[in-house]
Amino acid sequence: MSTRYDQSLDDFVLSQEELFENPDPRLPVALVLDVSGSMMGAPIAELQKGVETFFEAILCDEVARSSAEIAIVTFGGTVSAPLDFRSIENQKIPLLKAGGMTPMGQAVETALDLLEARKEEYRNAGVDYYQPWMVLMTDGVPTDDISGAENRIVELVEGRHLTVFPIAIGDADTEELSRLGGGRRPLRLQGLKFGEFFAWLSRSVAKVSQSIPGERVQLPEGLETWAQL
């Protein structure tokens, strides 16, 4: 069981109550976001707007709203999990601040720990769930060892227990990022089109939420609106 970052006992109890009150299958999505010093200025501001766009779009979709659960893990100097898995209606988007180095490996392992803990809670509550997603966004190169995170991702992806979306920002090292992609080629963001990316991601979440857990779903078109193809 993972450490619950910044989560009070009251929050934990509420998250359990949500599972029993809403038996709909859940889609847990972990956003692992680079907030290191190189993200200062326009990048962090646009990332903040993009995350807000993501939440707003899911809240406007009745099915996705009852299924999607979002956690946010940030890495910039230190690793933090300001948002743990909960009903999106009961979450407050954290203010993202840039600074420090890029401990990407630790951040990914933290996100994986949170996902494993939430899956255990789903099972205990008898709630079905879709294959978890992890979105990893960075504009740099890891400043810590990523081998442990890489091995865990490979095992989970090969076992069909995780889908990873590796997104390169600016001049990010795609070779290193690909090690954490679980076989998925990293896509590079066009400029600072965070809003377009998160709009596409929200449509993807909505589409999966309308399917049956375990069913293969073709993600929506629109990569050209935000990715360099």
From TrEMBL:
It comes from the Bacteria. Residues 28-212 form the VWFA domain. PROSITE patterns: VWFA (PS50234). This is VWFA domain-containing protein. It comes from Hydrogenimonas cancrithermarum.
